[in-house]
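Lab intake sheet, docking and co-folding queue.

SAMPLE TYPE: protein with bound small molecule
LIGAND NAME: zinc ion
LIGAND FORMAT: SMILES
REQUESTED OUTPUT: full 3D complex as structure tokens
PRIORITY: normal
SUBMITTED BY: R.K., bench team

The fields below were copied directly from the construct record.
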Amino acid sequence: MGERIDIPAHCFDSKPLFASPPEREVVDEVRAWVKKNPVYLWRGHTHSKPNAEEAGQIRYINDFVLPKGVESPCPCCTPHHAKFGKGYIAWFPLTGNVRLMGQDCFRTLNPEGHDFAVSELDERIKRESEQQFLLSKLGNIPAIMAGIRAAEPIAEYLDDLRDILGPRVQTLTGINLWSLVRSGSLNLIVETREGATSAYYATVAGATLLDPARRRYAKALLMAKQAIGAINLPFDPIKASDIDRSAAAKLMARGVNFAEDTLAAMAQARLFVSVLNTATLRNWAEQENARARLYIRRDGLQLYIGANQKEAHVIPLNPVIDRSIPRLSE
Ligand SMILES: [Zn+2]
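RESULT FIELD (auto-filled):
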């Protein structure tokens, strides 16, 4: 145990300031206070140990964290020595006192009361965060759905391109593009005294466009729409039951995450057919120690691909390939 801390006598006085559970402003006040001041000097804090009767009822209003390296004495167990860095704002309904105390300390005084207060706080935090999340998103559903719909033609075309640049190009040219780019990097064979080794040449952008195992983007967007569409509107996250609110929050999060992840993946995947990426592939294949025979070039809406320039086939690209991919509103 460290040095004894002198606590002013008035800190131990009972301060029955809170007839009802402290509101959000009190939580904010405590969190701001403990950043710069000794915990036990906060105006609302009672530093005496609760007696058995007072300890019979407790509620954890919220938690707080002390700055790194700072520890505070605790009214319940160690009133004169540094003890905890993570605390609870504990409210005692029988007296109206508030104690700022260590998170595990009260357990020994009243284990059941402690466990109940912890789960009540956890549930309340979960409820409030779901409410906040839904309040911030529900109004945006029309915009989110419109964004997804606008992305659908691009998604469908990128899914088509996987077939075109995969099986169809292979039939046409004998080139298995996916096998050339699946690692994401392009290498050259280098002969050394120890034998042939592989040396990094460049990175391929958007190789996942060709990945036969990826979920179709159009399918992923459909799943996002279905998740968001399963929320019964109008939905009131404040009045809803815990079960309904949790279900709605899950659907909303699932739909938005699905959609955002898919749009980001699409933006990356279409770089595969960009002028820059096709040039990288072409230049790589021109190296005499590259293992591929490949000519690929993007020119406007035409993609040339073949074993060499002379034998290259023209693949016309759908103009949606250049359409901007929507951003879902915040
Ligand atoms: Zn304690």
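REVIEWER NOTE: Residues 9-109 form one domain.
SIGN-OFF: pending second check by T.M.
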